[in-house]
Amino acid sequence: MSGLRNLGYDDLVVCYIVGILTDVSAERSLTALRDLVRSPGGAMLHRLRTERGRWKRVERDQALAAVPLALEVTDQELAPEALVARALETDFPPGRLPVRIYLSGGVLAFALPHTLFDGTGATAVVSAVVDKLARPGADDRPALPVARTPLRRTLKKVGQRGVGAVLEARRTFRALTAQTETGYQFPRTLTKAESVRRTRMVSMVLARDVVRTIAATPENAVDGGRPARPPVSVKTASLVLRYLRDVDREQVDFRVVVPVDARRWVERGVEVEGNFSPSIPMGRLLVDDWSATALAQRISASTKAGVPVLWLLASTLVSLKEAVRHPLASRRPAAEAPRVPVEIHVSLPATEVTVDESLLPQVDDRTFVGGAPAHRRLPLGVWVEIAPLRDCLHVIIRDETGVFDLDAFPERFTAMIAAAAEAGGPR
Fold first, then answer.
1. Whole-angstrom Cα distance, residue 260 to residue 119?
2. Would strands 100-104 and 71-73 be described as parallel, antiparallel, or unpaired?
3. Quick one: which H or E segment has residue 73?
4. For residues 257 and 284, is the Cβ–Cβ distance under 8 A?
5. CATH code for 150-423?
6. Among 87, 94, 106, 286, whose CB has the most other CB atoms within 10 angstroms?
7. At what angle do helices 26-38 and 119-134 cross, to 10 degrees?
8. How far apart are CA 100 and CA 157, in angstroms?
9. Angle CA(328)–CA(333)–CA(338) in degrees, nearest 5?
């Protein structure tokens, strides 16, 4: 079923950056990757790209032989924005592993194919390599078995099966899509090439005291109910969305979606391959309430109703339908890309990429531990990630549309956090 789940018009590349690391080198990086491939937990990397662009499972020795090809040292030290762009341009030629590592100064950038690794899967690979950097050597920890038919199993968990599941998935998909529909708001089609020229990325580390300020800022009640107590990541996402609304130079509306990992409905002790974290619509940037209370309620309601599982089924069926109707769609030139409504993807990863203190003695303004995906042939829209980083948070905004004024983001966002705290809650 993972093959069906990965059908669609366009594949994505997932990038993840970790740095600035101490005493990291090309040799140490290759040794870490080699140690992971030699370990049982590295079985997820025992694949090679085929001539037809697919991923074929191979024996460990074959994967080990491809390890030296997986690392590239940049000619010059790149800033995070340029390094992310470089990683997201990764093409996986035949005979290569499903991971590409770029070393730039003391920073490692990882590129992985979304067909094999969604955000959760990519984080697991990056964490495993970084762990081997700090603790070299192969281990004998057993690998988790790969779940068979996980979508079917999760549908049963949420009380859906058979034709009824298909009908409910289609109803949910259509209802949420219609409720958050923005239409295409650009005067002409935003092509991939144009979006690359417009792309701007900003990031910042929210230090411990700033995180505490956000956590302590009270929430207002919604619809006469009691104020919620959202996680600090959701409160930060609320601030970021309101910030983006304020700096929307062209008053272009965006559908806001939040990736939700459907693995919570999968039995423990198994691994799920491929895309299993669908992006669920939560509202429209310019017209909906983006207080942390409102956002938390939408995420909670979606999760309780099993919407991520239904969304996986619905998107799989839509992709299958489109593949049958347009079998050559993936071969269209980028200039003929269809008009896809722009979206803001707000990623709230619960799992931290833990970096040993021997590699990252302290977190400061130069630290970058987080990632972003990009379509190969279509604009993604806007990517927002709020990732845990020890007792801090790392915030990334990557805008492929050029709509938002991201100048002086750290200073302006910090001032917004202080203003919200002083006012006693969101306004």
1. 10
2. parallel
3. strand 71-73
4. no
5. 3.30.559.30
6. 87
7. 110
8. 36
9. 80
> Range(s) for CATH 3.30.559.30 in the chain?
150-423
* Cα–Cα distance for residue pair 98/117, rounded to 1 Å: 9
The tens place of each residue's pLDDT in the chain, 427 residues long, gives 444 444 444 678 999 999 899 999 999 999 999 999 999 999 999 999 999 889 999 999 999 999 999 999 998 999 999 999 999 999 999 999 999 999 999 999 999 999 899 888 999 999 999 999 999 998 988 888 888 888 888 888 888 877 888 888 889 999 999 999 988 888 888 888 899 999 999 999 999 999 999 999 888 766 666 767 899 999 999 999 999 999 999 899 999 999 999 998 988 888 888 888 999 999 999 999 999 999 999 999 999 988 999 999 888 887 777 666 656 655 565 556 667 778 999 999 988 899 999 999 999 999 999 999 998 888 899 999 999 999 999 999 999 999 999 999 999 999 999 988 887 665 5
The structure's pTM equals 0.90
Residue 194: CB atoms within 10 Å? 17
Strands 279-284, 107-113: pairing is unpaired
Neighbours of 23 (CB within 10 A): 9
Domain 2-134 superfamily per CATH: Chloramphenicol acetyltransferase-like domain (3.30.559.10)
Q: List, in sequence order, every residue forming a beta bridge with 18; answer none if it has no partner.
A: 108, 369
Cβ pair 30, 395 in contact under 8 A: no
d(CA 279, CA 58): 31
Q: Which of the 8 DSSP states describes residue 354?
A: -
Give the C-alpha distances (Å, rounded to integers) separating 180 from 29, 84, 165, 287, 307: 44, 30, 23, 10, 15
